[in-house]
User: What shape does this take?
Amino acid sequence: MEKAESPKRIIVRIHSAPPHHNAGGEMALFSMLRPLAARGHRVEVWLSRYGKARDPYMLDGVLVIPLASRLDFGSAIRHADVVISQYENVPSAAALARGYGIPFVALAHNPAPVIFKNIASGTTAMVVYNSLHLQAEAEALFAERPKWTRPTRGMVVRPPVFAQDYATKPGDRITLINLNSAKGGDLFWKVASRLPEHRFLAVQGAYGQQILRDLPNVDVIEQVPSEQMRDQVYARTRVLLVPSHVESWGRVGVEAMASGIPVIANPTAGLSESLGDAGIFCDVDDIDAWVASIRALDNPAEWQAASDRAFQRSKDLDPAQDLAAWVEAIEAL
Assistant: This one.
């Protein structure tokens, strides 16, 4: 990638950084920051929560500054060209950026109205949505509230998944990643108990109360760092279950499809958009449908057809075009 003619200092405020998986917003954001760093921009990620790290460190060309380093975030923003933030950090980061007259960019991964209320509290140069349906929801919300300050620009960047980072030979397990109730932990154990002849893999998540039980056909493993997901999870997986009650996109489904792994999912707006025609959809309250869908994939021909659709969907979701548009938009601010 060619270097930018006028490198920018880009300050990012988030609560935590990878490598741990199941923090989808942070995973997506770092995937978006990598091409900015490759262009020669100085990208700094300032963390707002305490973690194990104390000293600043480099991650994929991005400088990560832990909260424990006690460096002055406010002073850094004064010298920024662009400020980016998401989730609960939007109000404070936006206030500082606006106070210094620096373009502010918000990432939206979640349909909660409070997120957009924070964005609308002042001038926002750009909002980046993770899906078309979320962009449509936001536009409807702004239309209902004419007194809110509308963002100057909006664009969609689907959470980037680089297929080569996850592609592997599928295994023999039926897998769920993150066992909290919102991700369908209860359903997982019900399905596993109904299918004692099948082998299951349960991967504990980074957040939420994990629902842990003991069944002889289920292997439970602890949270897996993102760079180990291919070897520890997808290489063991034949079918991925995504019975989330709410999901604005669904990164793990896209990661699994890079290996041609069929995905059975609850048809939330986000999962329907991300999985497209490759998804096998079952209502999260219909246990019989999940059991029947898994049994249907026992047929080698059925599994292969679903795998072929997953491979094609993975190719359709190549992030190159989205990321090129994103880099161009940031450089234009």
In short: The first helix runs from residue 24 to 38.
